[in-house]
Write a structure and sequence with these properties.
InterPro entries: Beta-lactam/transpept-like, Glycosyltr_51/Transpeptidase. The protein is of the alpha+beta class. It contains four helices and 15 strands. Strands 9-15-14-11-12 form a five-stranded mixed sheet, with no helix packed on it. The protein has a three-stranded antiparallel sheet with strand order 3-4-5. The mean pLDDT is 89.
């Protein structure tokens, strides 16, 4: 709402000692910029996009007001509480909904709990105020993209979306997922997702295209994972997704505790989240050295 600039916090307006003399109130934060202006403007445009909210909330939702508002809702684990926060150029509103004793609510989310309160407060705060434009869209460049791949829409894409980008950051390549023969090829990186979604992909396995190198998609080298102490250990795991070399029918994972795990197509699995810095190797059966190595940390 401040365009990427953090301002000093003023939680106390004035304070006095026992003798009535004013006390000095320390400034908690010096004013400084934490994000440059253009990315903040793009983020604001994203948060004000009513079409982007529609798939999750429907077109008629608590954040749809007579003026553009950049807003975000959030729901905590187990519906303990929820938030709705947003802004216009003139007003900023944040709403928390929950029970003070931490008792979970019954299926109340940010859009159904804090959202209606946010809408009511923001509407009252903007009464009699003419809303200024949230962003200057002339600062962006637009492109027609494929909604599935995120690449520029090609001649074989069944549909397209108009999207805006910071200058120089729009996709430069045409979509490679929709082929001229009508087949869908999501590629090796998204094959497991496509299978889980019931999408038939022209990729028959998670093989890299000719010239590509075998390696770890997940976990990437340097990734960090946080174990939630409130959740059962068995419910928490490290996802593994591998880019296989062309022609591979079986691969092997080797962990730093000596285990060897067979990895068939689509070369996806999950490993226990064991605290510490972990090393994971990818091997071809009978190989003399690992195809790839990744290191990750579990906290």
């Amino acid at each position: 709402a401040r365009g990427g600039v953090v301002g000093p916090l003023k939680e106390v307006r004035a304070a006095f000692g026992p003798d009535g003399a004013p006390l000095r109130i320390p400034v908690e934060l010096e004013e400084h910029r934490f994000l440059t202006a253009r990315p903040v403007e793009l983020l604001t445009d994203v948060l004000a996009d009513e079409a982007a909210r529609a798939p999750a909330f429907g077109l008629d939702n608590a954040l749809r007001l007579p003026f553009r508002v950049a807003a975000k809702t959030g729901t905590s684990r187990a519906h303990v509480d929820n938030w709705a926060a947003g802004f216009t150029r003139e007003r900023t509103v944040a709403v928390w909904v929950g029970n003070f004793d931490g008792t979970p609510m019954r299926g109340v989310s940010g859009i159904t709990g804090a959202g209606p309160v946010f809408a009511r407060v923001m509407s009252l705060a903007m009464r009699g105020v003419r809303a200024a434009p949230l962003v200057d869209r002339s600062h962006f460049e637009s492109a027609a993209i494929c909604a599935l791949s995120g690449e520029r829409a090609g001649p074989n894409c069944p549909g397209l979306l108009k999207e805006v980008y910071l200058p120089g950051t729009a996709p430069r390549h045409d979509c490679t997922m929709h082929r001229s023969d009508g087949a869908l090829d999501v590629g090796p990186a998204y094959l497991a997702w496509a299978q889980a979604e019931g999408l038939a992909s022209a990729s028959v396995s998670a093989e890299g295209r000719p010239g590509s190198r075998a390696g770890f998609i997940l976990p990437a080298d340097g990734d960090e994972f946080l174990v939630e102490p409130q959740l059962p250990e068995g419910a928490q795991a490290v996802p593994v997704r591998v880019m296989a070399p062309p022609g591979a029918k079986m691969l092997e994972l080797r962990t730093d505790d000596g285990r060897r795990i067979e990895l068939p197509p689509p070369f996806v699995t999950r490993l226990p989240a064991v605290a510490g810095v972990r090393r994971l190797e990818l091997w071809a059966p009978g190989g003399a050295e690992p195809l790839a190595v990744t290191r990750y940390r579990v906290r």
